[in-house]
Amino acid sequence: MKTQTLNVSTSRGATTAHVATPDAGAVAAILLIQEWWGINDHIRDIATRYASEGFTCIAPDLYRGKLARDAGEASRLMQGLAIEDGVETIRQTIAETRRAFNVQKLGITGYCMGGTFALRAACEIPEFAAAAPFYGDIPEENVLAQLKVPTLFIAGNRDNWITLQKVNGLQEAARKYSLPVEVVSYDAEHAFFNDTRPEVYNAKAAADAWTRVLAHFRKYLEEAARQTVA
């Protein structure tokens, strides 16, 4: 496994993406969208975990190099990031990924703020073949209705931000518009996957979610890519 930096240009300024690639190469890539903290060691660790599972993983820096030191700064950075800005960075990262890596299929995942962007991007960007957002906010109904990508949405029943009401709204929209969405909820708090935050980390829920997400991406990215090549 190796890591590198990918340069990404957008209309609002240049940024970079952290990339982890398996030694044997990969037929599929996963875009990993950051939590509200920025591209920190936890996000880089998740990228490494995906590479260890055979995926190229690309984590674009939506904050253009800024990193929050506390929750107050993280909140300010997140509030200052326009949806259009984040989505454009994701689009441009896709373009750079296509140029730099020989991958057949693309997926997207993200946590917290990154889950919000991952779900919206899955609705708005047709290049993705699968999505797995973790406890991200739900887009407006007219945006959500566009979703055509097989999506595994991970939630926590004790999440005070992405509440049960919001998750139920996602499920109602999925039924209304026949969206390809599966919701898996755990008896856990917001950010339960983050093993650097012992106050919210839930090892059992995180392990089960990781297993489900890997299976989701293997089905819709790796297997589909090999069928395409064949």
Q: Quaternary status of these chains?
A: single chain
Please give the radius of gyration in angstroms: 16 Å
Count of distinct structural domains: 1
Kindly report how far apart the N and C termini lie. Answer: 26 Å
Largest sheet: 8 strands, mixed
Write down the CATH topology: Rossmann fold
Unreliable segments (pLDDT under 50, ≥5 consecutive)? none
Share of β-strand residues: 15-25%
Give the class-level CATH name.
Alpha Beta
Q: Which homologous superfamily in CATH is the superfamily?
A: Alpha/Beta hydrolase fold, catalytic domain
Bulk shape: globular
Major sheet strand order = 1-2-4-3-5-6-7-8
**Helical proportion?**
40-55%
Alpha plus pi helix count: 7
Descriptive labels:
8-stranded mixed beta sheet; 230 residues; Rossmann fold; alpha/beta
What would your notes on this structure say?
The chain has one domain (2-229): Rossmann fold (3-Layer(aba) Sandwich). The model has no long low-confidence stretch (mean pLDDT 95). The longest helix has 27 residues, at 203-229. The protein is globular and about 40 Å long. It is of the alpha/beta class. It has an 8-stranded mixed sheet, sandwiched between helices. It has helices spanning 41-52, 71-79, 83-100, 113-124, 141-144, 164-177, 203-229; strands at 2-8, 15-21, 28-33, 56-60, 105-111, 128-134, 151-156, 181-186. Helix 1 (41-52) links the parallel strand 3 (28-33) and strand 4 (56-60). Helix content is 42%, strand content 22%. It is built from 7 helices and 8 strands; from the N terminus they run βββαβααβαβαβαβα.
